[in-house]
Amino acid sequence: MDKTKVSYSLYLVTDSTPAILGDKDICHVVEEALKGGVTMVQYRDKQSDTGLLIKTAKKLHAITKKYYVPLLVNDRVDVALAVGCEGVHIGQDDMDLETARKLLGPNAIIGVTAGNVLEAASAVEGGADYLGIGTVYSTATKRDTKHMIGPAGVRNILEAVAVKMDKKPHVVCIGGIGAHNVQRVLLKASPPQWPLDGVAIVSAIMGSQDPQQAAKELATLVATPAFPL
Ligand code: TZP
Ligand code: MG
């Protein structure tokens, strides 16, 4: 897959916990979301052991490939390598970007979580393909988040990094985003010199009883810029 052709506009991040996935099948939910229009998928599973992670990631990869959508694995470079999927998403406590790039190679998509200017600048410097900025709003999906930065916080980070760096990787934001606020978030979080490419979403799709419809609605909203009122 040519990583320069990838769209970051509606980025689905999975969750396997009963609170969000319930008794639904992860592969079914992801396929429905792909039919609805998600453009990128991250397999995020903090509970399963390595064997199950690899097994599930392989199944998900067989599905995402049918839709020409990249699959990334959260945290685990070893799982991404085992599966041969398109990349990884690493946080500040995971494997460092330089090592991940060495292991995965130049064609892999590597995304990095950034919650402040320092983290974002170092990810840009290190050659991240995209930044996942957040947490935007408080969310039950990630309870360990200490502070929420809001759309203005995302914008401030991008503005500050833009003046220091020539490189501008793709950027999405994450945390508490759904159909009710996605247009406002994109509008308020995007500085003119470095607009967001899209949003990353967990519960608004994974927790929906109709993930295809949820993704469809979000895809339409993301493609329809809000008016600055
Ligand atoms: N990182 C920051 S917030 C978050 C992650 C993985 C979870 C976002 O979940 P939701 O359900 O889209 O608010
Ligand atoms: Mg992580």
TrEMBL record:
UniProt protein name: Thiamine biosynthetic bifunctional enzyme
Species per Swiss-Prot/TrEMBL record: Zalerion maritima
GO cellular component: cytoplasm
Record-annotated Thiamine phosphate synthase/TenI domain positions: 10-205
Record key words, sorted: ATP-binding, Kinase, Magnesium, Metal-binding, Nucleotide-binding, Thiamine biosynthesis, Transferase
Primary role: Condenses 4-methyl-5-(beta-hydroxyethyl)thiazole monophosphate (THZ-P) and 2-methyl-4-amino-5-hydroxymethyl pyrimidine pyrophosphate (HMP-PP) to form thiamine monophosphate (TMP).
GO biological process: thiamine biosynthetic process
Family affiliation: In the N-terminal section; belongs to the thiamine-phosphate synthase family.
Domain of life: Eukaryota
Single GO MF descriptor: magnesium ion binding
